[in-house]
Amino acid sequence: MNAPDTLAPTAAADRPAHAASPAHASDELRAALSEAGLHTPVTGGAADADVCIGPLAPADARQLARLIRTGTKRTLKTARALREICAGHRIELPGLRVRQGRIALGPVRVEDAARLARVLGAVPPPAARPAPPAGTDAAFVGALLGRVFPEATGGGALSVSVREEAPGLLDLGAIDARTARRLVRALQF
Fold it and tell me: Which among 70, 104, 127, 161 would be 20 to 30 A from 137, CA to CA?
C-alpha cells in the first residue's frame, strides 16, 4: 500500500537531520522548529542580519519555552553552582553568563583571579622574591591561572587576557558545561 502524499517531504525543513546544514541562520531555525513540531514563519535576510520568528500559537510558544529550558537546564544549573561556589570562596565573577551553550566567566578583578588560582592549587611565589611591578601583576596572575586551570579541571582550557584599558581586570573566556562541572568539583575540595 502506498503512503499518503501528505507524508512526502515538501520543504527544506522536512529533510532528515543528517542532510547538509542550512546556509542561513533563518533556515537552521526554521528546520529546528519544524523538527520539534512547531510550524511558524521564520524570516531572515540573505546575510541573516536579523532573523524574525512569526506569530506562534500559545501552545507552540509554551512548547518552545519548554524546549529551550530543557535544552539549557543543565548548563544553567552548572552556571548557578559555579557562581555559588565561587561566592563561597569570596571570588566575584560578576560577568558569569550562559552564552551560546557555554559559560562565559567574563571580567574579573586581578585579586579574584589570584584567589581562584590559589584555590585551584597554584603555588604563590616565595615571599623572598620581590613583587612584580604593578603593570605585570595582571599578566602574572593571568599566566598563573591559565597554567593551573587545565590541571585542576582535567584538561579544560581557559583563555585569560589582560585588559589594556583597565590593568586591574582580567577577561576570562568561556568554557563548556563539562569543564565548568569539573571546575565546580575542583573548587569543592
Answer: 104
